[in-house]
Write a structure and sequence with these properties.
The structure holds two protein chains of two kinds. By secondary structure, chain A is α/β, with parallel strands linked by helices. Chain A has helices spanning 9-20, 34-43, 57-69, 80-96, 123-128, 144-161, 171-174, 243-258, 261-264, 285-298, 316-320, 339-347, 366-372; strands at residues 4-8, 24-27, 50-53, 74-78, 100-106, 137-139, 164-170, 177-181, 227-229, 267-270, 277-280, 303-308, 310-312, 328-333, 352-357. In chain A, strands 3-2-4-5-7-6-13 form a seven-stranded mixed beta sheet, with helices on both faces. In chain A, strands 10-12-11-14-15 form a five-stranded mixed beta sheet, sandwiched between helices. A two-stranded antiparallel ribbon of chain A has the order 1-8. Chain B is α/β, with parallel strands linked by helices. Chain B is globular, with a radius of gyration of 19 Å. Classes of the chains: A alpha/beta, B alpha/beta. At the A-B interface, α3, α4 and β9 of A face β2, α4, α6 and α13 of B. β9 of chain A pairs parallel with β2 (71-74) of chain B.
Chain lengths: 373, 282
């Protein structure tokens, strides 16, 4: 029987990542994510892995991509200001298809903002922060226990789809300490990247078989000499200006996520079966929202909760399922209405949409939500 | 035998290269290939081709990575050394060589250059130093001499230039050297020494850019720029025999600085080993 332990959200990121096989971390100190770097510095060499504190956020992201290209599962962690600095190289990871996980423990902005206060204002930055157009996978945990299992899923999706995955935490969960019972190592499913290409058409580094979307990946140093670039490239991995090749690549990058949305998307549906009102929220905000649902239910109101665990791609199909039954959607998030825009896109005209948001450094309470119901 | 070298170490399908006529970058790329060939075929050094990773940034220089038939990664502007740091630490067995330019390495990537030098991580950084931003059409870089012209310095460059080799040495690089495209054998030798050296190596190689730097500054054609290198860049063996008067206006090339400070990934490996021992002891 696994033992219950008291653990902080930021610690759970590290332990879960190590369980997923992460053996390289590069980072730069930034509140409220710093405990992740500290814990990696302590724990990684114990597991035969490597921690490095880089000179800045940009180089941390670059080192993570380099380490992953050399065959090691890699991670970095940051908060809003650092997340902005990492964006160019996150885009490089998407284009060159280098798996890695970027943890963003969101804090209150804009700019330096309120560094130790909760916020969920990087929701759109997670999706649209890089230049150019490419899809993004972003996951957001709402408890310490979920942080542990979800960071493993972040690595699994990253390896499976050869893409950077954003782990969108917030200060609430990052700094929360909870008792958790960790799953046993044998019960975990761990994906490894598909890593063979050799004969015939497979000799091309970015060769993708008919009907598939993700090329195999060989680490540097294992006998498959190939080229990686952020330029538009053909299936051999070399730059090309050919518009047909450009369309093939950019379309495949979009489709590899879009066509696999059902595999990628996970939601939590709480008390939804007979709900006529649904709270929509993600991450740490869920804790107050659940409390509000329980209180509303105790008062006889039919309130449920719909929570994207995969926040990007937005679970539009999963939300659509409820749109005949649910008459009112209350979007609650620690920003001025970012996921709200997605809800409006998917549900406008089909349900009344209300919003509760806040950026003042304090947490939205169950009472705040109850007032809106 | 240059043709053999091309077939062995270049990606023929991706040639000819994009560099202008008279550009020195092709010569530097060839020097790197010769240096690697001599090390790969040297049974004592025991370097395999699969161990070699070529990492580049963005700019004229950085196209070299795609032409060279090794593991290669063409990264983002200025960040090649940071990518290379991750590669080296993920697999310290790899021989990681960074091909960069003066703008890529000392402007946008200057922070990574000095910190990699400070850590003394085992990378070999070869700076294709052509005194200008070539890819974007001739803007001044941090090494463009004071007073020289560039498209963004139409009245002459106000900035003072960096000496990239000295900058790296000051930051802690344990091997620095300077080469050029005229003194080919000397430049191949310092590249070899840089690769053999266990710590951080910075090799600043003067290239020629007749298209932008040369034209803007009336340096003549490619051959004139090469002649200038022949007359003014003096191998270290000869330089220190010259009188002070003869040294005037001349620059020294060859190995500049060398120390045996411990290499970063080897130091980190000791921490991993100590953690392993501590675990066993439990």
């Amino acid at each position: 029987m696994a033992k219950a332990v008291l653990m902080q959200g930021n610690e759970a990121v590290v332990e879960g990542a190590i369980a997923a096989g992460m053996r390289f971390f590069a980072g730069y100190p930034i509140t409220p994510s710093t405990e992740i770097a500290e814990q990696c510095a302590l724990r990684l060499p114990q597991e035969g892995g490597t921690f490095i504190q880089m000179e800045d956020e940009i180089s941390s992201m670059a080192a993570v991509l380099g380490a992953s290209a050399a065959g090691v599962k890699s991670m970095t962690a940051t908060s809003g200001p650092g997340f902005s600095l990492k964006q160019e190289n996150i885009g490089y990871g998407a284009m060159a298809e280098i798996p890695c996980v970027i943890v963003d423990v969101q804090r209150s902005g804009p700019s330096t903002g309120l560094p130790t206060s909760p916020s969920q204002a990087d929701y759109m930055q997670a999706r649209w922060g890089t230049h150019g157009d490419h899809p993004v996978i972003a996951l957001s945990p709402s408890s310490v226990a979920e942080t542990y299992t979800l960071i493993i899923r972040a690595f699994n999706l990253s390896e499976k789809y050869r893409t950077p995955v954003i782990f969108l935490m917030d200060e609430i969960v990052g700094h929360l300490r909870e008792g958790v019972t960790l799953p046993r190592a044998n019960d975990l499913v761990i994906n490894q990247r598909k890593s063979s290409f050799k004969d015939g058409a497979n000799k091309f580094a970015y060769f993708v078989p008919e009907g598939e979307y993700v090329p195999a990946m060989k680490p540097f140093g294992k006998g498959e000499r190939y080229n990686i670039t952020g330029l538009v490239h053909d299936r051999s991995g070399f730059p090309t200006n050919n518009s047909q090749e450009a369309a093939t690549l950019c379309t495949r990058l979009m489709e590899k996520i879009d066509k696999n949305a059902d595999d990628i998307i996970r939601v939590e549906e709480y008390q939804m079966d007979d709900a006529d009102t649904a709270i929509i929220c993600f991450g740490g905000t869920t804790r107050s929202a659940k409390h509000a649902v329980n209180e509303a239910r105790a008062a006889g109101k039919k309130v449920g909760l719909f929570r994207p665990i995969t926040v990007w791609p937005f679970p539009e199909k999963q939300l659509a399922k409820w749109l005949g039954q649910v008459k009112k959607l209350l979007v609650v998030e620690h920003n001025y209405g970012q996921m709200l825009l997605e809800v409006q896109r998917c549900a406008a005209g089909q349900a009344e949409i209300d919003f509760l948001g806040r950026i003042n450094g304090t947490v939205i309470t169950p009472a705040d939500i109850a007032e809106k119901l | 035998m240059p043709s053999d070298l091309i077939h062995e170490y270049m990606r023929i399908d991706h040639l000819p290269h994009i560099w202008c006529a008279g550009c020195g970058n092709g010569t530097i790329m060839r020097d790197v290939a010769v240096a690697l060939d001599e090390l790969i075929t040297d049974p004592e050094f025991a370097l395999t081709r699969d161990q070699v990773v070529i990492v580049s940034g963005i700019g004229c220089s950085s196209r070299a990575a795609g032409y060279m038939d090794f593991n290669s990664i063409h990264t983002t502007h200025g960040r090649a050394i940071a990518f290379a740091t991750g590669i080296k630490l993920a697999n310290p067995r790899l021989e990681v060589i960074v091909l960069t330019g003066d703008g890529d390495a000392s402007a946008i990537g200057g922070n990574h250059l000095i910190h990699a030098a400070r850590r003394n991580i085992g990378l070999t950084v070869i700076c294709f130093d052509n005194l200008i931003y070539g890819m974007t059409g001739g803007q001044y870089s941090p090494v463009t001499p004071h007073g020289d012209k560039a498209t963004t310095a139409p009245y002459g460059n106000v900035d003072r230039p960096f000496d990239v080799a000295k900058l790296a040495e000051g930051a802690g690089a344990s091997y620095t050297a300077r080469g050029d495209i005229y003194h080919v054998r000397e430049t191949i030798d310092i590249i070899k020494q840089g690769i053999k050296h266990k710590g951080f190596s910075l090799i600043d190689v003067y290239s020629t850019c007749p298209t932008y730097y040369g034209r803007k500054n009336k340096k003549g054609e490619a051959v004139d720029m090469l002649k200038w290198q022949k007359e003014n860049l003096i191998p270290v063996s000869k330089y220190y025999t010259l009188s002070e008067q003869a040294k005037e206006g001349k620059l020294v090339i060859g190995p500049l600085h060398h120390s045996n400070y411990p290499e970063y990934s080897a130091e980190y490996a000791k921490i991993i080993e100590a953690c392993k021992e501590a675990k066993k002891g439990k």
